[in-house]
Every structure is written in C-alpha cells, then in structure tokens.
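Q: Structure tokens for this one, please.
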Amino acid sequence: MNLSIAPTIVGILLFGVGMFFFLRYFFKLNSVVYKPVGVFLIILVGIQMMFSELRFGNDPEGSNTILGKGPAIAPTVASDTYNVFFGFGENDFTGLPVGSGNTFIETNTMFAKSIIYIKGDAPVRVLIYPTLGVVTLPNGLRFIPFFKNVYKTRAYNENEKAITIKVNITLGAVSIIER
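A: Here is the predicted structure, written as tokens:
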C-alpha cells in the first residue's frame, strides 16, 4: 500500500465508523431495519461504480481521482468535469484550444488536494467557489476564501473567447499554477 494513501484510508474508515455510531445512537435505529438498508446502500454504490467512470486511484482515461493520486490532462480526457475526492489530483488544462470558442470546465476537490495547470499566455478565467478550502494562486497569494473569487490571466479580455474554469473546493486545497 502506498504510504501517502494510508492516512486517507484511515480517515475514511474513522469517518465511516463515526457516522455508523452517530446514526445508530442519535436516531436510535433498530438493527433489524438498519443492517439491510446499510447493505442495500453499499450494493447500490458498488453497482454505480461498476457502470460509471468512477474509479479508485489513477485512471488515465477518466476524469475522476478517488483515494489515490492521478493526473487528468485535457483535452486528452474528453470531459467537462474533473473530480478529486480523498486523494491528490493534477489537472492540466494547458493544451486546451482557445480559438474554437469559449470553453467551460468544472473541477471539484473534496477532502483532497489538487493542482490545476493553466497556460499563462492564454485567456483564462478561474472562478473559485470555496467551502473551507485553501487556494494558492500563481502570483503566490495563499488564502482561505469565504466567498466567490475570480483569478484572470494577463491575456484575459471580457470581449474575447476564453477558457473559464470553475473550481469548487470542499475542505481541500487547490494550487493554480501558470505554465
């Protein structure tokens, strides 16, 4: 097992055990009903993972990273949404073409750390929507935003075609790096 993944797995296990005891004692759930419902929910999540692009760890063909470390390079991964959950992900958007029109991409970082690479000489606007997340901008500014923030590259102009990246952060850390 990779040592960088071990704390994440332990955290998820502790969270799951805590939620189990919380639901059991707070709502005083009967075990005759509680166990079958729990097993049914686990089966549903497993089936959903089998028949979707949701995969654990590094999936070079997909846009989701869960419980591991994985890169997602656009436009080789054809997706409008890139997710990083309980792990570390790198999203490289330096290869996106600008001339074809406005491009909108959404990234979600939940209980994880992600790095977003953008092209410094391309017109890029990054919309930051945080929920207790830490953001590091290309100019070195590091902050914990509480409201929507916007970062624009020097080449960005309101009246021209551009790339817009919406970054949703929930209890995570995001670094935006210009290349």
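A few notes: The chain has two domains: 6-50, 64-178. Confidence is low (pLDDT under 50) at residues 1-5.
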